[in-house]
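Fold it.
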Amino acid sequence: NFPVSPGAWDDGFSAGAGVTVTGVNFPLGTDIYVCRLSADGSALPASTYIGGVSNDGLNLAASTSFNYGDHARGEIILDTEGRPVVGSCTISSDFPVTSGVLQASIGGSQDGVLFRLSKDCSSLEWSTFFGGSNSEGVYSLKLEESGSLIASGGTTSNDLPTTAGVILPAYSGAADGYVLRATGNGSGILHCTYLGTPNYDQVYFAALDQDGDVYVTGQTRSAAFPITAGVYSVPGSGQFIVKLLPDFSNYEFSTLYGSGSGEINISPTAFLVDICENIYVSGWGGITNTFGTTTGMPVTADALKPGTDGSDFYFTVFSADMTSLQFASFYGGNTSREHVDGGTSRFDNNGVIYQAVCAGCGSNDDFPTTIGAVSQTNNSFNCNLGVAKIALDFTGVSAALDVEPAFIGCLPLTANFINNSSAGATYTWIFGDGSPGSSDFEPTHIYTAAGVFTVQLIASDPASCNLSDTAFLTVTVHEDSTLASFDLLETDYCDSLVVELSNTSFTVGSASFFWNFGDGTFSTENNPRHVYLLPGTYTLQLIVSDPVSCNGGDTLSASVTVAPRAVADVTGGSGCAPLFLDPVNSSSGLSPTYAWDFGDGFTATGPTASHTYDVPGTYSLSLFMSDPASCNNGDTATALVEVFETPTATITATPPSGSFYQIVEFSGPNPGASEIIWDLGNGVTAFGTPVNYQYSEPGEYTVCVTVISEADCRDTACLVVRLDADSELAFPNAFSPNGDGVNDELLPFNWGLEGYFLRIYNRWGEVVFESTDPDIGWDGSYKGKPQEVGMYKLTATGRGLDGLDYTAVSDLFLVR
């Protein structure tokens, strides 16, 4: 979902295969993107994807991804027409290429790619692979005045298309650097050479001097890398600088610089040859990198930081033709291992380094900062971004000028000139209107005649390498001025605001008009009509362009406010009397006031209100909203409130107290109830009315009745019933065990007895039945035989729950 612009050459992500690079996982693979931001960063006028189905833009080859961060190397430059030209690498065999280019298909496991897009990124103007049968990466691009392209990088292929007569037409081994001069449309190779030794070598940057000569810098792990006569050198070092003859047939010079330790010191991040042919290098080294340390690299007396902890940045400047070391310094903290996580930084043409740094690693604050910087502390738990802009001040004189208040004005025009030059000793101003010039540093000049004047600033210094430099600008002075004006008529329909515009501007020539309504819409009509549909405040602007006027045009702005519509919104509710209502006010407006009418004679004011409805019924709740700032001045909302009658619970018990073996009747009038639920106080629930219930144990029971209406309104009433523990022991005086199901078993009448014991004797005094369980009675048999009809004697004892002893002695008549 990377943002692309309308009409982008490729608006979709192509890569599908994942990859892991230096511990970072790219689960969906990678594409290249090219985008152009507006000058103020507020818009994206051009943006596109470019790539194939595999990984693009990542240097994945182990032999060419030598330094920490090398996977992210690549280059983008602009040609003379502002079109982006890109150098990178790919493992996608279907990377898009165009016809007629120098290499139409991928040559090995990873190839370099070169391509140019249109300025709006809507078309791929040309695209080509560059590589042999193994791996390549394109790290640096430069565009020559002739339009040809210089590309450089690293390779492990022994079959690059080198050209005849170059320094090194054949591959040396391990890894080599290369320098390519291609046609500006990517159609052919003009010159191509390897640079290297049988050990590891790579070219990381190319630069051009004022004469168009090609310089490159890179790394080597070979003491045999050539050093030409008369140059500054540190033999045995791991970094090289080479200046090539125009046809790449030989070196103008070649040298090594560094500590001379036999190992690589730094990974290069920027390279420049200035107008005096001074040579600038920026790089970093230390324990984060694969090899080497900054320890032992030379510094000059004016170094910003003369010592190193071995893991620092290193900035250096060499004189023209590499004859001497002019400046060298470390930059970084004394504890942290500064490095770059990928990509590069740059020198501008004046020798100012703009360097991004992975700084403060280990949560340190030792990266050198300046007073007033955005932050002088590292607020991360590990590394953070450090940014340095450092002027190395070895370029010659550079003239630059500006003017205030503007380049175009009306008679008489007072021009205040600003001198932005560097390294000048004297200055000569020529104002272009025939008046005497000035030698002031920043003069003021008054133009008294109309016209177009070329202003010239010559900055000079006899001691500089280029002696002087000249800069120009144009001042335009007009006689007549344009004045933008208009009349505005607004009609507010509340759901929209209609604006009628009458253009009353004064113009000198044939002017054009541009209306910006401030809501994303525009018009070039003379007297437009516009409808605003959304509330808000808009800046309406008329821009008059009149090229023949002295001010070139004029602009006038007006503020248009579209008031929103006030909308009242309230929620009602329902419930049982008494109902407490806290209605929700969801109204919208600018500066509203509120009045409430609850529908039962009560009112309130304010954005929130609450009310209790005591009487059942249906009520209309009204919210009156007044809002003079809205287009409709206010609104009213109503909502329904329903208050339901609550039934009344009553309860009676008959009897309310007594013996626990009695049956108690619970009842009571319950008006308005559609459902009656009883809680009998012992875990038993009953429904309806009346309810008759016999408790199995004595005690006090809290009995409650809950009545529920059809609207689910509820009421509850409770009372306490007390039941005492009375005991009794008695027997019938006859029974008939004849199997007719009636009075077949002799059982006692007893309640709440403990220690029960019954004996029955026949007339001879023999015990024919005995029991200790009052629930087990005599069936009139003895030892399985029915006993004869007649009189029997029984005795029974037991202790009541009331603490008294009970005894029963009686005659018993057995009847068949």
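The longest strand covers residues 468-478.
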